[in-house]
Amino acid sequence: MDFRKEIVLLDASLKKETKTEVEVQALQVGPAVFVTNPAEFFCQLGLNIKKESPFKYTFPVELANGCVGYVPTKEAFDTDGGGYETMLTSYSNLEIDAGNKMVDAGVELTKKMKPGAELQFQAAPPFSGKPWEYGNVKPELK
């Protein structure tokens, strides 16, 4: 990627708008919750949502209702971090703490909900009989 071009594009976009609004949502389906964000989250941010959510079944959903680019963890911006995702570009240009703010907002929404009851299913009966033999043919020997 040519970062010189990206810096010029970023500079031009910041002259138009200096703030980015993101939408974070939580959608409950029974005992499960789906926490959405419009980012390409680093995996650790999704794991943080799952850890802090009161729901046993928590699913982080990224790139929902828009796209604000890569959102690394705050640690990725440290001296040991890095990578192209931490470079400011016209695609990825949120503040360093944006990921944590989205995580906190999503978790706060989950804490306003109560997980529904888990569905209980009857166990499958034990297997009886012999295995299916259709397609079991011996190799052709010449």
Outline the fold blueprint.
Blueprint: H1 3-16, E1 25-29, E2 32-36, E3 40-41, H2 43-52, E4 57-61, E5 70-71, H3 98-110
Parallel strand pairs: 2-4, 3-5
Antiparallel strand pairs: 1-2
Helix pairs in contact: 2-3
Structural write-up:
The protein has 142 residues and is α/β, with parallel strands linked by helices. The chain has one domain. The protein has 3 helices and 5 strands. It has helices at residues 3-16, 43-52, 98-110; strands spanning 25-29, 32-36, 40-41, 57-61, 70-71. Helix 2 (43-52) runs parallel beside helix 3 (98-110). The chain is flat, with a radius of gyration of 23 Å. The model has no long low-confidence stretch (mean pLDDT 86).
Q: What integer value in Å does the Rg equal?
A: 23 Å
Major beta sheet, strand line-up: 1-2-4
Structural class, from secondary structure content? alpha/beta
The N- to C-terminal Cα distance equals 58 Å
Question: Helical percent range?
Answer: 25-40%
Structural features:
alpha/beta, two-stranded parallel ribbon, single chain, 142 residues
Please give a quick description of this structure.
With 142 residues, the chain is an alpha/beta fold. The chain has helices spanning 3-16, 43-52, 98-110, and strands at residues 25-29, 32-36, 40-41, 57-61, 70-71. A hairpin with a 2-residue loop joins strand 1 and strand 2.
